[in-house]
Amino acid sequence: MPDKSFRMNHIDNHTHSHHSTDSRMDMGSAAGKILQRSFGGICFSDHYDFDAPDGVRLFTFDVQRQQEEIDRLKEKFPSLVLLKGVEIGIQPASLDSIRDFMGRHTFDTVIASMHFVRGTDPFHGTYYQGYDYKQAYRIYLEDILYCMGAYSDFDILGHFDYVARYAPYREHEVSMKVFGDILDPILKILAQNGKTLEINTKTYQKFQYGTPTLDKNVIRRFRELGGEAVSLGSDAHGDERIGEQFGFYTRILRQCGFRYGVYYRNRKPEYYKMD
Which of 79, 95, 168, 269 has the least CB density, counted as fewest CB within 10 Å? Predict the structure, then answer.
């Protein structure tokens, strides 16, 4: 059983620096913001996706340059936990490319997130055409489940309900009530293999068609299945959003039976008591 006696303020496990194609966030400014907010640290989990749909820009970055910059920041901010991360874009067609990439690089933290599904990105809206919400959400979850069964070299499953962000429906929740038959095996794989589920606070903000909500029953079920901790990530692409709504979602985690936060260093989980 890991030592969970250490007490600290939160780590934001999911952020994007200027090394991500879609972000301009300066790493030094982000570290300064972490200090201002009395957080314990930050993980720079920049995008790396393979097999982008036609017309979608390529999401890759220079791993060596990103990690060298983080090393320099560690000297400037010795009191902070500064983590070298990647958000790897999972999809069934990309798993061999991901294995090759991961075999050539090392990180502190690896987030596995699905952005592209069935040849498109829900962000662009065309994914939903011809589907009702149950079909659109289920297809997305089915691809996650496939990837969870076929690929295990990651630490955190990122934004499991990303598909609800841009959905043109009245239903903006990926719930256990409707999708429990497919969420349950996803959560079991995570819990049984020591992986971590993420609460991605960016998902629960207002988007074009509404404000997605987190079904707390998903978090409760993960705990029931033996999940050790849930990762908090802001998905910030600017330093003003670092740690957004962490206090609110910490209270939800406590309601669901969790008492500890988690971050990954050298691909090993480190736990801390949540204040």
Answer: 79
